[in-house]
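Internal QA ticket QA-208
Title: Verify multi-chain structure generation after dependency bump
Assignee: T.L.

Test input:
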Amino acid sequence: MAKEEAGNGLVFHPMDQFEIKTLFGDGPVHWYSFTNATLWMGLTVLAVFALLVLGTSRRAMVPNRVQSIGELAYGFIYRMIEDVAGKDGVKYFPHIMTLFMFIVFSNFLGLLPMAFTTTSHIAVTGVLAMGVFLSVTILGFVKHGFSFFGLFWISSAPLILRPILALIEIISYFVRPLSHSIRLAGNMMAGHAVIKVFAAFAAVLAISPFAIIAITAIYALEVLVAFIQAYVFAILTCVYLKDALHPNH
Amino acid sequence: MEGDIVQMGAYIGAGLACTGMGGAAVGVGHVVGNFLSGALRNPSAATGQTATMFIGIAFAEALGIFSFLVALLLMFAV
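Actual output:
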């Protein structure tokens, strides 16, 4: 293990920030333990609640600042679903809005100092992506029955190529939850690990000004990436939903 | 001595895995460059396609992130 080398090994451990620890007492982590992941997920839900429920509680016709941010987020996701999945995709707005708000708040809260990013764990993003994949597949079968397999049979290609294309389409359909989850988890983990690595460089006196400027630049990039990754997760969910609702190529 | 060779292999593998990110950078630049050249010819149609551009960027970048993930795993989790 890299951590146990004395002297000639690594002296900083940028991946330690992703460790899940129980907050009270040093026991092993059970499914019911209160861990740092539990705390930060709870804070994420509280933050979404504070923005959307408490912020719009006054229901003013001329919105105040918090209400208008909530309305902006609502309209943004509503228009995105309408554009990508069509009018009948709007029925699934609550699921996609929940996903987007959870991921964007979880990403942004992870940027606070000493915070823990829950979406940097494949466990969290895997469950989100698996939920999307299962719900979209089951929806496709419920709505279209066996003609859902028309998603894989590309009728606009020459007949000779269709079996090969069908095989490729099936493989890429099953890779979807994998890439969906790893994209978000990898982006978050990579961003935070890079910040930690640059922070270790800042301890070396000779290059510490450049290291601190680099940390600031990477932090700005991470703010952008946090929003973009949440947006990409939501819009890909809409694309998969559109595939389930209209599987004819 | 055996443990050191395993460590050496892990670090060399981590360095080699980072070459995958070059391909990701080229891919993302390709997508954005094509978007820009199309947008400068037809600016009014460009705003409707920014969503497609972001989806393309996400797909191209995801594979670079996968290779970075492999590098990180080799560095710190082997």
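Spot checks passed. Chain B has four helices and no strands.
Status: verified.
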